[in-house]
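Ticket #451: bound-state structure for nicotinamide-adenine-dinucleotide.
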Amino acid sequence: MSVSQSTRSLNLTIIGTGFVGVVSAAVYAHFGNQVYGLDIDKHKIDLLKDSQIPFFEPGLAELLQKTQKTGRLKFTTNYQKAISQADVILIAVGTPSAPSGNADLKYVLAASVSLAPYLKQDAIVVVKSTVPPGTLAKVAEAIKTKTKRHFYLASLPEFLKEGTAVADTLKPDRIVIGATDPFVFQVLEALHQPFGAPIVKISPESAQMAKYAANNFLATRITFANQLADLCEKNGADIDEVIKAIGYDQRIGAHYWYPGFGYGGSCFPKDVKELAAYSRTVGEADNLFNKIDALNETRIAKLLDHYEKLIGGFEHKKVAVLGLSFKPNTNDMRVAPSTKVIPLLIEKGAEVVGYDPKASWLEFGLPQLDNFQQLKTIEAALENVDVIFVLIEWPEIVQFDYGKIRQKNKPQWLIDARNQLDIQQVQKWGFNYLAIGKSVKVPSYERAKSK
Ligand SMILES: NC(=O)c1ccc[n+]([C@@H]2O[C@H](COP(=O)([O-])OP(=O)(O)OC[C@H]3O[C@@H](n4cnc5c(N)ncnc54)[C@H](O)[C@@H]3O)[C@@H](O)[C@H]2O)c1
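RESOLUTION: The complex was predicted; output attached.
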């Protein structure tokens, strides 16, 4: 690839057509590049060839269909076909946490070995997966076991959010390019010009740290809000009022405050664990990230013990858990609060039903549990219920008229895990309302009756 070519559209290959890979492939093709999406999962590739997405993400199916029609986006399982013409290869495979907490690089290194024999002279291999500093040296070593050709390396961390991934990728807040060679900066900067976002050109180590820093900061904000919320419940304050008051401070801001059941999903829990583990490996064992992780790990059990006392036990109660995905607008259940809440409620003796507009417990591969079933409609899940957990703020769940299912002859509890409902309205319907960081008084007669 010559420098002049570097300013035109490129042949790109994205290795790993998971969440990040599919969205990136569609968006790079949308901006005029010739793109291959490459995966070892044949079933996934067959679906994608047919414009079917193996997960739910708003707007992605339309973008995929549109770009596939142009002929600029193809999917394959064949490394030779996908790599031999590629100017830039982006590795976007998973990097789960190993039992030690460190990022498990086995998929990144396996992809590096597989691509190496077909690599074009001077191709750029870009690591898009979230990885710790030091990874590019390992990738170089893996590639060099299979080729003598010259290649470049770079780091291009991904910051998209599930649920708004298409919009985030088409119009990102920034593009972070971690590289050392001016040629690599030039090619990757030209590739990202159409995105119209600020481009931050830094070292690979800074780019990798920036990704961990962003997710760890957001996870810290959530944990900070949760810690404050617990104190508010003890002293009569209301966490939402506290957030409103501090949010006017320009240094703090009113955005991204989510007191609740803790952070979940495929990224925050893993990225906090990975930064904590990385800190330990470089001799910084006494670190903030360990504490954030520990607080988040114990949060749901702590809250359920708290609610158990307030409502007089879960035993023999019918509990509806509304919202099984880890956040709205996705069917991703990786580290979703529901995956902890439901087994704990069963352990406490409840009969649990679940509802989600898109996520499916069994299709996601979660185990069948005694005393738990997922129902197809919110109304069915709420039939004759004693306790409702509004766990995830899907619009359908937040906007539901709970007054319709209120049974006046028995106490019913509504636990608002995201502080999304109007307290006065819920109380007017006649529910006992519990939320996060609000010192709602629970009448003692209700506690007695619900036993
Ligand atoms: N999901 C997110 O919201 C998000 C956001 C930002 C960054 N990230 C990071 O991006 C990376 C990918 O995340 P994801 O959620 O897309 O993962 P994913 O698990 O959804 O997808 C990974 C894909 O890689 C494929 N794969 C594994 N080994 C392969 C190999 N040797 N060759 C070809 N394909 C292979 C798998 O079959 C799978 O389809 C991770 O490092 C993650 O931390 C994810």
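RESOLUTION NOTES: The first strand starts at residue 11 and ends at 15.
TICKET STATUS: resolved
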